[in-house]
Design goal:
With 232 residues, this protein is mainly α. Helices cover 55% and strands 6% of the residues.
Length: 232
């Protein structure tokens, strides 16, 4: 994800296998599709870099009975935490736009909330609904799940929305039951969780969802290529 050739080697592009689809004939839509995939490729990496920087601070300071969370470290952790959620949400949104452009020929989709808040949607065919239904179930959960960090819901604003529109995200330290210092993060108004594991889970689940969308496009491309090979 953060290898030295991520920019100069086109094969490291997360979406390089679907960047030149044969199933899109409209040149304008194809241009938007490619632009969104290029953006998503970068946004995922931006989020990965921000996560690595937060995790670096946690690894450096989270040991022993007391964490000296100095002002410089707090500033770096807070900056990278907010960058992490903003870029990760942007990665999902730009991937969704490309996905929708491929399957509908329209470029008007620009937010995962276009799907989650208007569920069920008719443009996703039944055979592709499985991952979306999982996402919607996580979104509807009354307990905090990874998607709640990135997409707002009726029960409360997402981390991303809080960071962009309202306040700063809370990352702090506690002394746990074993008298060891730990970094925690506010999951919602009432719940705190261990910062490192939660941030990694959010990134892993978001990346998994992005790759699921990519694989659905790739599968459709295989079907399209097979149909072309059979045509006279």
């Amino acid at each position: 994800m953060l290898d030295d050739l991520w920019f100069s080697d086109p094969t490291t592009h997360i979406f390089h296998e679907i960047n030149d689809p044969r199933g899109l004939q409209d040149r304008r839509v194809l241009g938007v599709y490619r632009q969104r995939l290029d953006a998503a490729n970068l946004k995922v990496r931006f989020a990965a870099q921000a996560l690595e920087d937060v995790e670096g601070i946690i690894r450096q300071l989270e040991h022993g009975e007391f964490i000296y969370f100095d002002d410089a470290s707090r500033l770096k952790a807070s900056f990278n935490l907010e960058a992490f959620v903003v870029f990760l949400r942007a990665a999902i949104d730009t991937t969704l736009c490309a996905y929708a452009a491929y399957f509908t020929g329209k470029t008007t989709f620009d937010s995962v909330n276009d799907v989650l808040s208007k569920w069920p949607v008719t443009w996703i065919p039944p055979e592709r609904l499985g991952p979306w239904e999982e996402l919607r179930a996580a979104y509807d959960s009354k307990s905090f799940t990874w998607i709640h960090a990135l997409a707002g819901r009726e029960q409360g604003m997402s981390w991303r929305d809080l960071a962009v529109h309202k306040t700063t995200l809370a990352i702090d330290t506690i002394i746990d039951e074993k008298d060891r210092g730990k970094f925690v993060i506010a999951l919602d108004k009432e719940t705190f969780g261990p910062a490192g594991p939660w941030l990694k889970n959010i990134f892993d689940e978001a990346l998994r969802f992005v790759l699921v969308l990519m694989n659905q496009v790739r599968a459709a491309e295989i079907v399209h290529a097979a149909a072309l090979s059979r045509s006279p």
